[in-house]
Amino acid sequence: MTQIILYIALPVVGIVLGWTIRWLYARFQLSAAEQKAERVRQDAIREAEAQKKEMLLQAKEQLIQDRNQQERENRERRKELQSYESRVNKKEELLDQRSQELDKRDKEFGFRVAEMQKRETTLSEKEQTLRTELERISGLTQDEAKTLIIKNLENDARHDAQALLNKIDQEAQVTAEKKAQEILVTTIQRLATEVTSDITVATVSLPSDEMKGRIIGREGRNIRTLETLTGVDIIIDDTPEAVVISCFDPVRKEIARETLERLITDGRIHPARIEEIVQKVTREIQQRIYEEGEKVLFDVGIHNMSQDGVRALGRLHFRTSYGQNVLVHSKEVAELASMLAAEVGANRDLAKRAALLHDIGKGAESDSDQNHAEVGAEMARKMGEDPRVVNAIAAHHNDCEPQTIEAVLVQIADAISAARPGARRETVDNYVKRLENLEETAKKFQGVEQAYAIQAGRELRILVNNDKIPDAEVKDLAKQIAKQIETDLRYPGRIKITMIRETRIIEYAR
Fold first, then answer.
1. How many CB atoms lie within 10 A of CB 300?
2. Could you point out which of 41, 83, 168, 288 has its C-alpha 20 to 30 Å from the C-alpha of 382?
3. What number of other Cβ atoms are within 10 A of residue 460's Cβ?
4. Do residues 236 and 216 touch, judged by C-beta distance below 8 A?
5. Count of CB atoms within 10 A of residue 52's CB?
6. Rounded to an integer, what distance in angstroms lies between the CA atom of residue 264 and that of residue 302?
7. What pTM was computed for the model?
8. Are 431 and 329 in contact (CB under 8 A)?
9. What are the pLDDT digits (tens) for 337-396?
10. Could you please report the per-residue DSSP string of 95-122?
């Protein structure tokens, strides 16, 4: 039993003893940790106080340095202020000296002004005395004497001027005519140009007489289509291997000639092909018109022309005046005007430009009642040309007064070019003018699209708008046109009027 108790008590005692030892050890460690913490705290306090003392010392040193720097800056500023004050004192002394000098000069000037006033008063008194004495001696007042002197001077000047004018006039009368003749002769001699004359018919060569039948076509449909589309008269007679194209309008004549030559070369001659070739040739002729305008501008040395101006000049290539090509005539007039301007000292460029453009109204596609000079002037104004050029164009046939010497030179050059031997043929121009009037008369009526004078003016072929003019009114319109032609125009024989009204419908199968 005792052993059992011992067996039970011994472990309990061991446990209690072990726990006690551990408790005592923990208390020892806690006490050591508290002592260590206290030492760390004391060390931190001592270190903080040391740092505080060090920072205070640094702050005191920085304060002392700042105070010393401020004192140095204050000393430098005091020196600068003392220097500036010294300079200001010197300037004040100089200003005081100058002020004293100015006061002295002002007094001297006042004395001189008083002296001058005194002298002026004395001179005025003497002048008044002399004026009174002169008036007494001459018997004239001051205003009367002044008027008399001015009148005498004016009379002398007028006499001298009139004498000079008379002398200049006499010399001008003696030399002007001779000088003018010399200028014109010299200018004409310098001009070298060919004498050419345009005609109103063109001949197309054929490879054989069999081609005539193909040109005519079945029931004449080919030749009728070609004449309708181009507005020319195609004459097929007994002349071997040749067809004659007659038209007063050179553009239409050229389109028809080129079209016919291409059809002959191609060999396919039928209405559809004819229409296709006519359209193609028409576009090419328009391009050629532009190229002709550029060419003549290059030849005369003018390079700043608008595109409308180039086209207007190019159209003149296909226009004639009394049988003279208008573009060649315009180029010739430009060269003459430039030479004349050089002779008399005028503006060569202005004269050349105005002369080249003086007849652009002849190529205008317009139904206006104005003459070609007025139409050309309006075209030039719209193209932005110089007002002096516009005036020269409008005045070249004396429709208005020329405002510049260059405008007069354009008139002279135009007259020289037109008057030279072989330049023009009046009969051809009258013939062309009559055909133009014939077409223009027909175009004035409502519904007329195109009018072509063919057969040398013996037939007028008119195309009417099928939408505006029904079949029932075509005959009445033809009678009205015939009556108008009888009233307005003069012509030999009689004129046949052919009205064409066509309804064309185009549809595509897709």
1. 18
2. 288
3. 24
4. yes
5. 10
6. 40
7. 0.48
8. no
9. 888 888 888 888 888 898 888 888 887 766 566 778 888 888 888 888 888 988 988 888
10. HHHHHHHHHHHHHHHHHHHHHHHHHHHH
